[in-house]
C-alpha cells in the first residue's frame, strides 16, 4: 500500500492507490457490497489492493476527492487499470456476462515479455499429472517444442507408479473404482428386495486381491495411453526427476542416476502433492493413500487417521468392502465444507455404515505387535490421546492391521531448488503463490495444479488451468481460469456434492439477514423397497439482495457427483432461485429435488419432501 503523507494532496494520494495494482477497490468497513466485491476477486484469484477508507485518517476527505474524480457517490469504487468500473453490481454483471476475466486478461496480456533465445525447448513441464500433461499437450498443439518430466519417488513402503500423476494412479480413478466396488456390495443386498435370488447374500464375500489386480490393470492401461498420446502428439517424455540449476536451466536425473541438463524459454511447474506423515513413534508402520490402492493384501482391521476428503472416502469404501474401520478425527469432519452437510455425511457413516469414530483424538504412538506375512498385514497397537475440556487426557489403545494416514498433503516443491531461480514459495507449507495468470514471482516460470496456493486441489481444475495457460503462452489467447463455482463431490458412502459457498461462508460474506436457505429432506425412490429410511438432504443457499441468486448448492445422496455436475452450468450462469423453480424436474430422480424446494430454513417448517 502506498504511504499516505500529509504533504501530498488528496488527488495524488488517490492516484498512488489507483496505480498500486491492476484492480483497486476503495471501500468502507461496514459496507456489505465491499465485502462481496473482495470475496469475488479473492475467489477469482485476481490480485487486488483493498483501500479501507474507514481505517485511513483522511478517509472521509479521500472519499470526497474520489467522488469528484470518478463521479460515483457510493462504495465500493472498483477500478481496473485506472478506470472506474463501478460498484459491486457492475463488476458482478461483467463477470456474469463473461466480460470480467477477458477484461482483466486483456489489460495484462501475458504480463511478461520473455525474450526468445537459444533454448533447447520452448517449454519444460515438470510433473506429468493432470495439470502438466494437459499443458504439455496443448503447447505442442500450438506448434511448440515441449518436454515433460515425470518421476515418482517411491513411498517409504516402496510403492511407485507410472505416468499420469496422482489422479490416475493413486487418486480419483482407483478411489472411484473402489467406491464403485463398495456400492455394488450394497446393491447385492438390495437386489433381494427386488426379487433377485442370489443365494444367501449375507455370505457374499469380497476378494481384495482380485479388485486390486483388475483396477491396477486398468490404471496401467491409462499409463500406457498417456505415453502413447505423448508420442503421437510429439511431447518429449522424460521419466526423470527435474530441478533448477540456474535461470532457464534444469538438471534431470533418471532411475539409473544419470544426470543431464536442459534449457527452455518457459517452465510450467505441476509437481502436485504427496501425503503427509506424522512425527510419532511407529509412524513407519503406517501407510497412506499412495500405498492403499495397490496394497497386495486386504488391509484388515483399519484405523484411518484424518477426517477430510481422503480419510472419509477411503474409510467409506473399506467399511463397505466388509472391513472393521475406525476413523480418528482430530477436530471436525470436512473442514471448509458446509458443516451441516459434513455432519450428515458423518451421521450416515456412523449410523448406517457402522463405522466407528474416535472424535477429538490424535495418535501418539504405534507399536508393532505382529509382523506382516506374505498376503497378510501385521498387527499394530495404536495409542491415542484426547484432551478434555478439564485438561485431563483420555487415552485409547487398540490393535489394528492397517493404519492409514490421511492427514493432508504436502506440495512437491522443496526439492525443485526454486531459490536458484527466485521463485517465491511458502517455506513452511511448500505452496507457490501465483497471480491470476498462474505466473510465479519469476516471469518465465508458471505453476498449475495442487502446488498453487489457494486453488482447489482437484483434477479438472489442474487440467483447465494447464490448458488455458498453454493457450495464453503460445496461442495468443487471453482466457483466464475461472475459479468461482468449482463443483466437487466427496465420494463417501452417502455422496456429498456441492458448488459455491457453504451456508457459513455465505452468511459471513453477505450477512445472515441477506441469506435465505431453501432445503429439503428426501428418501430416494430406489431406497423405498429395501426399506432404507435414512433421510438424504439438499439445500440451496440464496442471496436475497441478488434476486435470490443461488450462491451455494449442496446435496447428500446417491449419485451426488452426477447430479452436482449438471447444476454447475446453472451456477456458472448465476441462476436465481426463480430459475431453479422454473426448471422442470425429471421424475423420479434425486436431482429433481432442486426444482421443487419450497421450504426455507427460517420458516421452521418441515423439510420433508412431498410425494409425487
Ligand atoms: P499430480 O497429478 O500429483 O502430478 C504431479 C506429478 O509430478 C507426479 O507424477 C509427481 O510424481 C511428479 N513430480 C513431482 N516432482 C517432480 C520433479 N521434480 N520432477 C519430475 N516429476 C515430478 N480430484 C478430483 O477432482 N476428484 C477426485 O475424486 C479426487 N480424488 C482424489 C483421491 C485421492 C486419494 C487423492 C490423493 C487426490 C484426489 N483428487 C481428486 C485430487 C487430484 O488427484 C489432484 O488434484 C490432481 O491429481 C492434481 O494434479 P497435479 O497436476 O497438480 O499433480
Ligand atoms: P485435507 O488437508 O483436506 O484434510 C486433512 C485432514 O487431516 C483434516 O481432517 C485434518 O484435521 C486432519 N489432520 C491434519 N493433521 C493432523 C494430525 N496431525 N493429526 C490428526 N489429524 C490431522 O487433506 P486430504 O488429504 O483429505 O485432501 C487433500 C486434497 O485432495 C483435498 O483438498 C481435495 O482437494 C483433494 N481430494 C479430492 C477428492 C475429491 O474430489 N473427491 C478426494 C480426495 C482428495 P483438522 O480439520 O483438525 O485440521
Structure described in brief:
With 612 residues, the chain is of the alpha/beta class. It is 32% helix and 23% strand. The longest helix is centred in the middle third of the chain and has 26 residues, at 208-233.
Oligomer: single chain
pLDDT under 50 segments (min length 5)? Answer: 1-6
Could you say how many structural domains there are in total? 4
Note the overall shape.
Answer: globular
Give the N-to-C terminal Cα separation. 59 Å
Query: What is the H level of CATH, i.e. the homologous superfamily of the largest domain?
Result: FAD/NAD(P)-binding domain
Predict the CATH topology of the largest domain. FAD/NAD(P)-binding domain
CATH architecture title of the largest domain: 3-Layer(bba) Sandwich
CATH class of the largest domain: Alpha Beta
Percent helix range: 25-40%
Amino acid at each position: 500500500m502506498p504511504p499516505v503523507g500529509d504533504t501530498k494532496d488528496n488527488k495524488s494520494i488517490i492516484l498512488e492507490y489507483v496505480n498500486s495494482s491492476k484492480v483497486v477497490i476503495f471501500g468502507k468497513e461496514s459496507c456489505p457490497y465491499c465485502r462481496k466485491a473482495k470475496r469475488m476477486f479473492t475467489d477469482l484469484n485476481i490480485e487486488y489492493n483493498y483501500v479501507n477508507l474507514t481505517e485511513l485518517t483522511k478517509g472521509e476527505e479521500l472519499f470526497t476527492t474520489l467522488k469528484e474524480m470518478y463521479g460515483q457517490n457510493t462504495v465500493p469504487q472498483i477500478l481496473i487499470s485506472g478506470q472506474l468500473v463501478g460498484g459491486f453490481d457492475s463488476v458482478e454483471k461483467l463477470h456474469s456476462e463473461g466480460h470480467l476475466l477477458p477484461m482483466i486478461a486483456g489489460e495484462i496480456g501475458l504480463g511478461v515479455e520473455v525474450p526468445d533465445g537459444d533454448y533447447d525447448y520452448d517449454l519444460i513441464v515438470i510433473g506429468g499429472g493432470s495439470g502438466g500433461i494437459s499443458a504439455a499437450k496443448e503447447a505442442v498443439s500450438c506448434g511448440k517444442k515441449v518436454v515433460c518430466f515425470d518421476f515418482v519417488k517411491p513411498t517409504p513402503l516402496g510403492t511407485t507408479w507410472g505416468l499420469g500423476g496422482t489422479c490416475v494412479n493413486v487418486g480419483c480413478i482407483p478411489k472411484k473404482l473402489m467406491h464403485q466396488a463398495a456400492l455394488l456390495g450394497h446393491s447385492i443386498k438390495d437386489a433381494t428386495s427386488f426379487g433377485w435370488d442370489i443365494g444367501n447374500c449375507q455370505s457374499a464375500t469380497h476378494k481384495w486381491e482380485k479388485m486390486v489386480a483388475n483396477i491396477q490393470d486398468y490404471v496401467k492401461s491409462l499409463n500406457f495411453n498417456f505415453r502413447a498420446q505423448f508420442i503421437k502428439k510429439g511431447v518429449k517424455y522424460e521419466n526423470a526427476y527435474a530441478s533448477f540449476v540456474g535461470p532457464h536451466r534444469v538438471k534431470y536425473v533418471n532411475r539409473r542416476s544419470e544426470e543431464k541438463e536442459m534449457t527452455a524459454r518457459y517452465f510450467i511447474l505441476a509437481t502436485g502433492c504427496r501425503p503427509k506423515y506424522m512425527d510419532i513413534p511407529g509412524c513407519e508402520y503406517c501407510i497412506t493413500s499412495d500405498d492403499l490402492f495397490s496394497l497386495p493384501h486386504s488391509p484388515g482391521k483399519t484405523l484411518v487417521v484424518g477426517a477430510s476428503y481422503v480419510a472419509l472416502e477411503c474409510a467409506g469404501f473399506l467399511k463397505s468392502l466388509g472391513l472393521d474401520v475406525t476413523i480418528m478425527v482430530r477436530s471436525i469432519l470436512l473442514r471448509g465444507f458446509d458443516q451441516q452437510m459434513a455432519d450428515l455425511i458423518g451421521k450416515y457413516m456412523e449410523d448406517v455404515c457402522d463405522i466407528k469414530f474416535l472424535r477429538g483424538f490424535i495418535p501418539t504412538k504405534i507399536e508393532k505387535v505382529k509382523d506382516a506375512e506374505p498376503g497378510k498385514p501385521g498387527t499394530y497397537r495404536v495409542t491415542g490421546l484426547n484432551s478434555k475440556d478439564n485438561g485431563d487426557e483420555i487415552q485409547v489403545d487398540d490393535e489394528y492391521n492397517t493404519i492409514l494416514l490421511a492427514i493432508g498433503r504436502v506440495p512437491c516443491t522443496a526439492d525443485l531448488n526454486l531459490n536458484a531461480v527466485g521463485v517465491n514459495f511458502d517455506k513452511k507449507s511448500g505452496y507457490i503463490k501465483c497471480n491470476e495468470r498462474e505466473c510465479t514471482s519469476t516471469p518465465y516460470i508458471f505453476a498449475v495444479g495442487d502446488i498453487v496456493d489457494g486453488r482447489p486441489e482437484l483434477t479438472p481444475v489442474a487440467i483447465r488451468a494447464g490448458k488455458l495457460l498453454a493457450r495464453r503462452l503460445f496461442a495468443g489467447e487471453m482466457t483466464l481460469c475461472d475459479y468461482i463455482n468449482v463443483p466437487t463431490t466427496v465420494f463417501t458412502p452417502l455422496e456429498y456434492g456441492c458448488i459455491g459457498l457453504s451456508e457459513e461462508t455465505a452468511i459471513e460474506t453477505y450477512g445472515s439477514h441477506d441469506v435465505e436457505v431453501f432445503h429439503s429432506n428426501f428418501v430416494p425412490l430406489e431406497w423405498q423397497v429395501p426399506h432404507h429410511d435414512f433421510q438424504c438432504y439438499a439445500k440451496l443457499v440464496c442471496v436475497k439482495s441478488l434476486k435470490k441468486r443461488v450462491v451455494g448448492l449442496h446435496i447428500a445422496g446417491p449419485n451426488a457427483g452426477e447430479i452436482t455436475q449438471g447444476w454447475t452450468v446453472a451456477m456458472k450462469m448465476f441462476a436465481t432461485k426463480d430459475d431453479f423453480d422454473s426448471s422442470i424436474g425429471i421424475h423420479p430422480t434425486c436431482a429433481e429435488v432442486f426444482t421443487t424446494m419450497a421450504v426455507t430454513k427460517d420458516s421452521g417448517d418441515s423439510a420433508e419432501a412431498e410425494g409425487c
